[in-house]
Structures are given as C-alpha cells and as structure tokens.
Design a protein that fits this description.
This protein has one domain: Gcn5-related N-acetyltransferase (GNAT) (Aminopeptidase). 32% of the residues lie in helices and 22% in strands. The protein contains 4 helices and 5 strands, in the order βααβββαβα. The protein has a 5-stranded mixed sheet with strand order 1-2-3-4-5, sandwiched between helices. Helix 3 links the parallel strand 4 and strand 5. The longest helix is centred in the C-terminal third of the chain and has 15 residues. It is globular. The model has no long low-confidence stretch (mean pLDDT 94).
Length: 158
C-alpha cells in the first residue's frame, strides 16, 4: 500500500472506557495472525491481557491511536531487563492499525509514542518481530529500525 494522506492521530494511554474499541481491534489483529474461530484466544486470555495493559505495576503497557474520536490502532509493549546493556529494553509485542487507517501515519505515531514512553523510563531500545512476508509493515520498519537477521524460535513447555 502506498502512503495516503496522513490523518490527525492522537496517541495516548488506554483507559477503562476503551475496552470495547480495543477488543474489536484486538480481535482483528489476532485474526490477521490466524487466531480466530477454533484457534481464537480464550476470553480469559483476552481479559487478562486487557488488565495487564491497564495495570501501572505490570511490565506490560500499551498505547492507543485515536482519530476523530475513534480508536484506529494500538501498540503493546513489554519492558524487561537486558543482559547486554545497562538500561532495560522494550519488546513491542503487538502493533496494529485498522485496515481503514493503514498507510496514513498511525503505526508511525504509535512507534513514536512508544519511543517517548521508553525515553521517559530510561529504556535503551525497542525491538519487535514481524512476519517475513508482511511487506507493508516492513516498509515502515525498515525506515525506523534495523533488521537484525535473527530467526525466532518458540518452544512450548507446558
């Protein structure tokens, strides 16, 4: 997708009143990654995720992107210690823009917001994953970060 005209995006911390809009976007995000129908996240996982995002004591945090009074995107992060630098690091686990707002500056505004959040907490860097074939997202990511060329493995232990 080519960059369309930017829209006025306001990025902020989520509030309790955002739950319905967030839940709708969260379902779209998970469907994008094949977590729908029989493979959908359980309601317990969804509820726990929302609670963690709102809990200021949690290592999980989030931002929402608003335009014209409606939520058009979100980013979720996990802060943790890092063994190769003195400062903590930030893992951007989720970044999503509603299909109607893609290519209009929402993802960049969310990443900029996460950067501000990190600087305010003396966090050294941000890292994230995306699927190799997510060409649209990678166009932006290539402008903002560097491809570390690491391959991600996951092993279930429970």
């Amino acid at each position: 997708m080519t960059e369309d005209a930017s829209i006025d995006v306001h990025v902020r911390l989520p509030t309790l009143s955002d739950k319905s809009a967030w839940t709708e976007l969260w379902a779209q995000y998970n469907a994008f990654y094949g977590r729908e129908g029989d493979t959908a996240l359980s309601s317990d996982v969804i509820e726990n995720t929302w609670k963690r995002i709102l809990d200021p004591r949690s290592s999980v945090a989030g931002l929402v992107a608003m335009t014209d009074g409606r939520m058009v995107g979100f980013a979720h992060v996990v802060f943790h210690d890092n063994l190769i630098q003195l400062q903590p690091t930030c893992y951007m686990q989720d970044l999503f823009t509603s299909p109607t707002a893609r290519g209009r500056g929402v993802a960049r505004a969310l990443i900029d917001g996460i950067s501000v959040m990190c600087r305010s907490q003396d966090v050294g860097d941000i890292y994230w994953h995306t699927q190799a074939d997510n060409v649209t997202a990678r166009r932006l990511y290539d402008q903002l970060g560097r491809d570390t060329e690491f391959v991600v493995y996951r092993m279930n232990v429970g």
